[in-house]
Design the sequence.
């Protein structure tokens, strides 16, 4: 690709200390994110899926500069944000905004809707009061609320309406990227669809790029163009959203898909046969992080970590099966072990 | 329906005192669960599904709640007319429950072995040693790895999925005839949810316990229930065998719910369709509504719907719906 992607993460790593204190060494480290790389083009949506503790939210927070990475780098529009002076980072940061999961906790209850929605303007030189109010009214209209809501407080709104306020706030400075962390997970089913449709409309109208973080595979499949599946801090598979549920390449993706209860009584379901919990990221298993739960694990899996490599057009997988191409062949039986290059 | 029902709720009405005035959380709910059956109750937050369950268990906080009218018969006895002592004896022994967040139901300072053994000592009069042995057996049955070595563990030492397994063991030790599960897997990751649902199915098969499964997740209901009730704003709006509900939903609310959720695999071939929204919001429980509660959000509503509340009427074998379209099918508009 000749065009510079809007965002690029290269080998992102994050370790958190456990225990310890100001003068004491930590007792252990949690490897929350372990060498994550991806790119998002302008106007594109990448879904980051995985179960709790897989590191997907930590990736989002690093992208926004809310926490510093332990290793690797983030480029926004070709600029390495880790090397920017603070003031310049602040200016750049306006081009990426965030929508949080909990519309109850993420809005300041003492601020009016107008103040909440226009808050991002104050990171730089805010326009005058009348202009801010005009802008806020326009934003509310855009997200399906009314100008008469400007002087009300968050507690006067339902969960779905609060999420709309959060979206209006994110749009205020005309960002190019929105990091949405479980934006519909706290909403009721009938309200979820309203917010998903709104996010789709806004993406089309403003050419927004999304990093959409979610545990809900169906929502990600619906909303995103590409999907990256995370397990224990690493991306194990990336695929076009329209393909991954039909033909997963990583055994973990296959298990995730089989686990989703589908609201269709006719659809035949593959048996779900994965036992056990996700291992602790404090003491992750050696080799492939998924091998202790993987029904296909064979010789190399406990010894060597498979690298994330291209397996088919537009698809990457980190799995030793089929010479490093994962579940490429239907009903694949373990083939002979491959000696690929060892990943870091 | 003949009265072979294990649990039969009739005309249950529960009101709440709220800062905005009195509200009706459950308004005339009728439902029956046969012995050994799985009945799914689906609906969004505030529809009254959990309040109905708490009323059966006798666990509603009174006040602010108040049971206005109705009967709840369990095996022929009206639970609402029993004393607290008798209800406690039924609860745990004959009717057990599991909730969404196991941490709120487990005692954080008691080892899990003691907690699983307790109902056996209290309800069945087993000795400490017998109860301990049976508890170990149940922890194995719910597939806690190395169960015997974990009897002395405390809840905080377990993962969310393991805690939910402990809760299930506690609920099932006395082999209750009815298990009420309120969003039992909502707080769990999807692979753990699949494990817990399959465990619940296996145990149900083995013990013959009837299951009243309350959830907002239509996928969970499709997998687990034989019959389904859909609740909206304090009322049952549709009841159907599970296949009929998903293949031919009758009530516009049920239809709207099923169209509004993205279904995994729905984009096969790259086609991308827009989700159908249900416009508007669920009415507040304090709102007074003259006609059908769903009329304000319903694409088919006509004058009668706004004036007169429809009754829950039989519309086919094992099927009921609370909708005027049953009597005025010509009013149903077709949407592309």
Sequence:
């Amino acid at each position: 690709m000749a065009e510079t992607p809007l965002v690029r993460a290269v080998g992102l790593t994050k370790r958190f200390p456990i225990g310890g204190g100001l003068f004491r060494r930590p007792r252990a480290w949690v490897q929350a994110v372990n060498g994550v790389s991806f790119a998002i083009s302008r106007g594109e949506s990448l879904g980051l899926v995985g179960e709790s503790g897989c590191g997907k939210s930590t990736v989002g927070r690093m992208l926004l500069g809310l926490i510093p990475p332990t290793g690797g780098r983030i480029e926004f529009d070709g600029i390495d944000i880790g090397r920017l002076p603070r003031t310049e980072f602040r200016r750049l940061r306006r081009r990426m905004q965030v929508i949080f999961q909990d519309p109850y906790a993420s809005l300041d209850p003492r601020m009016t809707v107008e103040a909440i929605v226009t808050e991002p303007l104050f990171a730089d030189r805010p326009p005058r009061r009348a202009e801010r109010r005009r802008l806020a009214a326009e934003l509310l209209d855009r997200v399906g609320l009314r100008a008469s809501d400007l002087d009300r407080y968050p507690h006067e709104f339902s969960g779905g309406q609060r999420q709309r306020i959060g979206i209006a706030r994110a749009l205020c400075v005309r960002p190019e990227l929105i990091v949405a962390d479980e934006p519909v997970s706290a909403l009721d089913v009938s309200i979820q669809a309203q917010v998903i449709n709104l996010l789709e409309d806004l993406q089309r109208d403003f050419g927004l790029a999304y990093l959409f973080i979610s545990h809900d595979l169906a929502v990600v499949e619906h909303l995103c163009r590409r999907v990256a599946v995370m397990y224990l801090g690493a991306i194990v598979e990336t695929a076009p959203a329209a393909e991954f549920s039909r033909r997963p390449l990583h055994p973990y993706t296959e298990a995730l898909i089989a686990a989703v209860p589908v609201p269709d009584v006719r659809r035949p379901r593959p048996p779900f046969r994965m036992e056990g919990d996700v291992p602790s990221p404090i003491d992750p298993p050696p080799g492939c992080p998924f091998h202790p739960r993987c029904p296909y694990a064979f010789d190399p899996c406990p010894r060597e970590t498979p690298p994330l490599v291209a397996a088919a057009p537009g698809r990457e997988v980190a799995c030793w099966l089929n010479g490093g191409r994962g579940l490429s062949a239907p009903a694949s039986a373990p083939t002979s072990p491959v000696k690929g290059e060892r990943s870091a | 329906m003949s009265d072979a029902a294990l649990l039969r709720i009739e005309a249950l009405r529960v009101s709440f005192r709220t800062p905005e005035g009195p509200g009706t959380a459950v308004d005339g709910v009728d439902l029956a669960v046969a012995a050994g059956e799985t009945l799914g109750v689906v609906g969004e937050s505030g529809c009254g599904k959990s309040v109905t369950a708490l009323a059966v268990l006798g666990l509603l906080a009174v006040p602010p709640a108040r049971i206005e009218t109705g009967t709840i018969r369990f095996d022929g006895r009206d639970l609402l007319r029993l004393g607290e002592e008798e209800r406690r004896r039924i609860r745990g022994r004959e009717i057990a429950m599991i909730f969404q967040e196991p941490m709120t139901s487990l005692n954080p300072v008691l080892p899990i072995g003691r907690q699983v053994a307790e109902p056996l000592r209290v309800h069945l009069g087993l000795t400490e040693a017998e109860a301990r042995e049976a508890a170990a057996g149940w922890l194995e049955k719910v597939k806690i790895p190395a169960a015997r070595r974990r009897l002395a563990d405390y809840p905080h030492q377990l993962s969310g999925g393991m805690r939910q397994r402990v809760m299930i063991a506690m609920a099932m030790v006395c082999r209750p005839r009815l298990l009420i599960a309120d969003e039992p897997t909502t707080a769990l990751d999807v692979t753990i949810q699949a494990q817990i649902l399959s465990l619940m199915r296996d145990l149900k098969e083995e013990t013959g316990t009837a299951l009243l499964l309350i959830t907002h997740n239509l996928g969970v209901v499709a997998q687990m229930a034989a019959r389904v009730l859909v609740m909206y704003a304090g009322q049952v709006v549709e009841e159907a065998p599970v296949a009929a509900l998903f293949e031919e939903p009758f009530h516009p609310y049920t239809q709207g719910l099923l169209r509004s959720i993205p279904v995994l695999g729905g984009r096969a071939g790259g086609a991308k369709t827009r989700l159908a929204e249900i416009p508007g919001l669920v009415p507040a429980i304090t709102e007074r509504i003259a006609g059908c509660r769903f009329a304000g959000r319903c694409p088919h509503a006509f004058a009668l719907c706004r004036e007169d509340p429809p009754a829950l009427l039989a519309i086919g074998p094992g099927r009921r719906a609370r909708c005027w379209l049953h009597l005025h099918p010509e009013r149903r508009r077709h949407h592309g």
Observations:
- DSSP finds ten helices and twelve strands in chain A.
